[in-house]
What we know:
A: Immunoglobulin-like; B: Protocatechuate 3,4-Dioxygenase, subunit A; 4 domains
Amino acid sequence: MFLLLAVATALSAADVYRVAGVIIDSETGSPVANASVALSPGGESRGDMGVITGPDGRFSFDAPRGIFRLSAVVAGHSQVFGEMSPFSDAGIGVVTGPDEDTAHLVFRWFRPAVITGRVLDDQGEPVENARVKLLHYGVADGRTRIGPRNEASTNDRGEYRIWEIPAASYYLIATGRPWYAEAWAVGPGKPQAPVAYRPVYYPGTADVTHAAPLTVHPGEEAHADFAFSAVAAANVTVNCDNNTSVVEALPAAPNGAMTLSVIGQSIGGEAVLSQTAFIICPFTVNGVLPGHYLLRLSDTEAAGPRAAQRWVDVGVGDIEVSLSLHPAAALSGRVTLKNAGAWPNGLLVGLFRDLDNWSETMPIGADGSFSVPHIEPGKYLVSVSGAGYYAETIRAGDVALPRGVVNIEDGAELRLSIVASNKSVRFRGFATRDDQPLGNMLVVIVPRDPVSAYSNQGYQTDSDGSFDWPALPAGDYLLFAVDDPTIAYADPETVKPYLSQAKQIRIEPGKVLEERVPVQAVVK
Amino acid sequence: MVSSDQMRGVWLLLLLTGWCSAQQGEYVLAGSVVNSRTGEPVKRALVTATRQATPEESTNGAAMQPVSASALTDVSGAFRFTGLAAGTYSLWASKPHFDAAQAGAPIDLKKSSREDVRVELSPFGAIEGRIDDQRDEPVSGVSLLVMHADIADGRRRTQLERFVSTDDRGIYRVWDVPPGRYVIEAVGSGATFTYLDEAGPSNGGFLSFVPAYFGGPTTDSATPVVIEPGTEARANIGVLLQPAYKVRGTLTNLGTGEVTFALFSGDEQYGTGRVNFSRASGAFEMLEVVNGSYALLAMQNHEVFAELPIVVHGGDVNGLRMALAGPAEIPVIVRILDQPAVKAIPEGQQQLEPQNLGFCYPALRPSSGGYPIIPGPGDGAIQAPPGRYRFDVSCGNAYVISATLGTTDLLANPGFTVAPGLAQAPIEIVARHGGGIISGAIKLGQVPTGKTMFVLAVPRFSARAPESTQASDDGQFSFESLAPGDYTLYGFSTDQLEYRSPEFLRGLTGGESVHVEDGATAAVTITRLAQ
Lengths: 524, 531
């Protein structure tokens, strides 16, 4: 794993090492010409050395002793040496030194893939401005996740094209509006019955439970066409029971900050389907498809933050929904430092919300307190960072929150007690097979304390087979290495088969630990 | 999937609700929508019939909004509204990739139905092309500037119409392009990325190309793409990929606001790779610059500027130092000779009639396009950012005798350069109150009129720019406040005249000579169009 960590190494003019090799196509094995290959020293972004490969795909640099990032750009697409899967970490570092063979590197180039297709309406006419969204399905940061990747719009011929995507598995969702939907609403009196397109999921289904990922291989051009069907939709009018103050206050506060979110089922679970900011009640969401939705209203500008949410069933025919604003959910707490002393500067509490990948950090007061006066309900990951600190345990009342995961209910006032520590230790070593260090392996540590707020960590070994965590929390861990860097190491079930042969290690402050860990074969 | 029967249900529902919202009545409004270019029916065009309020309804407030109904045409392009109330209707049709259009005159449904209304929709055009390098390999991520090209104020002008990028196949496409002439340029991206820390990231980008146009290397040599209704044009551009280098330096005198960088070669702006800029240190790094001589321009908030000539030749350029400075202030002195004495206005009285005073104000037109810079009212100076400009002067009730910048005669040589931060020589304009008048008419014998005519008055006594005017519908035209001297008048049936080009003027034939004297009116009749 390449880290932005400058390795302090004594240099002399004589210490020059060759970093050389060939860049080859991962599928065909043939050399890649016209690749812009760059070698950058660790921790520095300037002073790159760059070469353009010829027909033989060869590159060569003379570099001092150290750790380097080797990267290549081919036709605008960049990759880092040692990148096993596009959503693993950023590849591996090239470590130069007297005992390192860095002159025969093989840089496997994964040609990007393309997904393209057409979106037509129910009359076979192309749909312009349809959005096709790509959600990556696979392992990222050790977790199997579904995460947004690229999106594209269709042109006048209904064609979309998403290129330079890493070969992987993707869910695809096509959304759009009939071009005449807005025009239909023109008219006096009662608004006309709206029409809308149902979202269509690959492989051509409007039923989200039948959506399946499309797997593309390096260099492949995959096709995925979509056909929309127009269905009668409904206008949903949201009334706010106790919102008069906002309406009256509006001339003075034109930036009233009421936000309405429509949450519904999408790939991978609930997702925010639409969000409209700066609304004034009553507010109408036009052209809502039949379905089951959570309407969530939040008002952050009121004297005290307020919120409301309600599940609604939308069928054919307009509906009105009343939402009662009440004080919004709030999160507060206190951070206690395990080792008492002067309160360090720059200590932060971090929040990450799964639903929409929202994240925020907030400062911690000198007395250890922090507060978020307004927080949306949902599942959050809580962390502490800054000045070398991390959260050791997080409790809500008497309940420990393993891995720092907390669920916040609508209107709840939650108080957290966090114990933070800076007793972190540098931990390094080598992944070995038959006692020989092996690069490009995955080294994993698993905290043994079941209520630890800390999660499993993975490290893709550098070219010399080394791993190097600059700051790991003190504690008891299980340590193992596996010959596939792409496994979901953060998932307890995935790591289970490797734990019986894992090493038990204790990381203690003041002790620099070095370990050699044998590589296990991946369990498929 | 929804079956076609269900879909018919949806359409019917839409049609009925549209119909219900119009007032109930007995009349039918029907017809068809056709493609103006091919005459073919346009299916699924949206047709909206709007009933205009009668004067009575307007006065008694019964119809605050017009009453309308909408429908989509069927496969034969036909539409039909039934049960409409008596009244006057306007009818609009629209469909993606067609210019929305109204059916001629308002339709009267007071005594009878109308079932023969024809609405013509004119299709937009599209331009598609591929950008290849010298090895015929596609180049992805190239920015394409699609510029509408026409002639305004006697000069060729290009205005950005669309901005697109090539995909991985080197292909770009723009659609819904209105009829006209377009110049297409391929450039690098050139966006500035600001970083708060000392040094932003540096990435690759070792190859780039000199901007290129469809059909030629410069704007003037480019081949315009002519778009008529429904044209599907192709415009491939070849670029010469070559090694590109980095240009690095430090920008000082930073204030607050957005910093952007641009590279010029002559009047042409060069596309570059991204520019990394550190707000903390002022360090900048421009990527993907190919060999050449350039002017490097930096600006903050379009208020302060720095410019530096640079040469890139086979390697990175490092250590540049640029200091931001305010725009150059160019003093402006205007003298009007023979200006009538201004009558003093008695205390407390408003001046109702404007004095017949002569006035002149200069305008600096940036060569790179954009709005002209003119002094504000009462200003004795122009605030001009560094760059190249063309001088222009407009006068009323007066004619220009001379305009100079130092020793340069701006009437004969209107182009000049403004350097940042330097003291500038003043622009001096001398004009004389009054001037001569030409009053004339175009009478073209058999040639059918009904077309708008334009007239050029080309001075024969100096190299100053011609004057142009548009004739009225009956062919009458006039020029006022002309400098005395001999002129040749030319008549045209278009205003797309490049009359500020000496080549254009040299090639003109078929003019009428006229002599203009100060304070006098010269009469002229144009009986033929100029060639």
